Amino acid sequence: MMRTQNNFFERFFAMKKYLAVLLAVVIISTTFIACSKSSGKDETTTAKESTSVTVENPTDKAVIKDADAINFIKTSYTAKELGLDKVKEEYSFMISSTGVKIDGKQYVKVAANVMKKNDETAANGKTTFSLTPVGEFYISYDGKNVLKKDLDSGEYTKLENRYQDYKSKGETVSSTKKAKQ
């Protein structure tokens, strides 16, 4: 009788061990599956994030872009020609990294903005600033057209294209530097 009872306990404990291992495998696998799955909302966010990282800068195709576009506007035109002569505050030029389509043609946008420190700080305690646009200028991707936008009416005025003069000044400066070396 004792032997039968021992046999029963041995089988019972052996069964418990197998059951415990099986249960552990099921729990681990379902946890892994649940964690690896994501909701549709997360997939959309991930897709947007990866897309924005891999997208080529649209203004890369422009002849005049980046700091060169800012320098071109700043040095080729007077404040009066740009409509900035009546701006009392100090302004700075900034460039948009995305192209702007005007009448079916792509342009690089250079904006003149007045930057003001806000009285209130951000939630993290850092100082915040506001930008007030005082001028917008557009250079066509091919470099042939320069437009000034009237911020009140939204209309565009074509400016004289001085890119050849600007470019030759840049070449003169670089050739002068080479001659001095």
Task: Outline the fold blueprint.
Elements: H1 2-36, H2 40-54, H3 66-76, H4 79-82, E1 92-95, E2 100-102, E3 105-121, E4 127-140, E5 146-149, E6 156-159, H5 163-180
Antiparallel strand pairs: 1-3, 2-3, 3-4, 4-5, 5-6
Question: What are its keywords?
Answer:
single chain; alpha+beta; 6-stranded antiparallel β-sheet; 25% strand; disordered C terminus
What does this structure look like?
With 181 residues, this protein is of the alpha+beta class. Strands 1, 2, 3, 4, 5 and 6 form a six-stranded antiparallel beta sheet that branches. The longest helix is centred in the first third of the chain and has 35 residues. It starts with a helix and ends with a helix. The C terminus is likely disordered.
Helix content: 40-55%
Outline: elongated
Cα separation of the termini: 108 Å
Given as residue ranges, the uncertain stretches (5+ residues, pLDDT < 50) are 39-56, 172-181
Largest sheet: 6 strands, antiparallel
Number of DSSP helices?
5
Strand content: 25-35%
Radius of gyration: 33 Å
Structural class: alpha+beta
Could you tell me the mean pLDDT?
A: 77
Oligomer: single chain
- Succession of helices and strands: HHHHEEEEEEH
**What is the number of strand segments?**
6
